[in-house]
Amino acid sequence: MKCRDSNLCKKEKWINDNAMKICEKINKKQAMNFEEVYTTYYCRLKNFAKEYVIYEEDAENIVQDIFFELWKQRPVFVSYMNLSGFLFFSVKNRCIDFIRRKKIEYNVIDVLQKEYLLTLQLNLESLEEFDNEIFGETDIDTIIDNAIESLPARCREIFVLKMHGYKQKKIAEKLGISVNTVENQMTIAYKKLKEYLKDYFLFFF
User: What pTM, to 2 d.p., does this model score?
Assistant: First the structure.
C-alpha cells in the first residue's frame, strides 16, 4: 500500500533508517549489565527518593518503576552518556509527580494529616528549585570518587572499608587500631565529605 503523503513517507523512512543506525551503534558498545546498574544505583536512588517522599515503601516503588522502564528499554539504555544523571533526574521527576498526586489526595483527608502535607509541600518546593545542571555533570560518580580521594590516607582507608560493609570492630582489627579511632576517623570523613559534596550529598548514600 502506497503512502498518500510523500512527506510523511519520507519522515517515516528517516526515522526507521536512524533507528537502525542507533541500534547498530549500541550493539557495538560495551554495554553495562542491567544487574550491575541495578546493584550500583538502587540503594542510592531509593535513599534520594525517600528524602522527598518520606516513606521508604513509596521510595522503593518509585525506583522500582524507574528500573522497570529501564528494563523494557534495556537495548538502548546503554546509549545514555551520563547514566547516573539520567537515573537521578528520572527519580526527581517521579517524586514530583508522586508529591503532587499525594497533595491532591491529602486535601480531602482530615486535619491530622496537615503536618505530612506541609512536609510534602516543602519537599516539592525543594525539588522544583533543584538545580537541574547537577544532573548534567560529566559524571556524578567521578565527583564522588574525587571527594573520597581527597580524604587523608588513614581516614580514606577506614571510610572505604566501611563502604564495603566492614563493621567498626572488624576495621579496627584489620588495621590494628582501636574502635574509638575508627569512629573518630569516620566522623572526620563524613564532615569533610559533606562539605566537599554539599551539592551532591544526597546522591552519595
Answer: 0.48
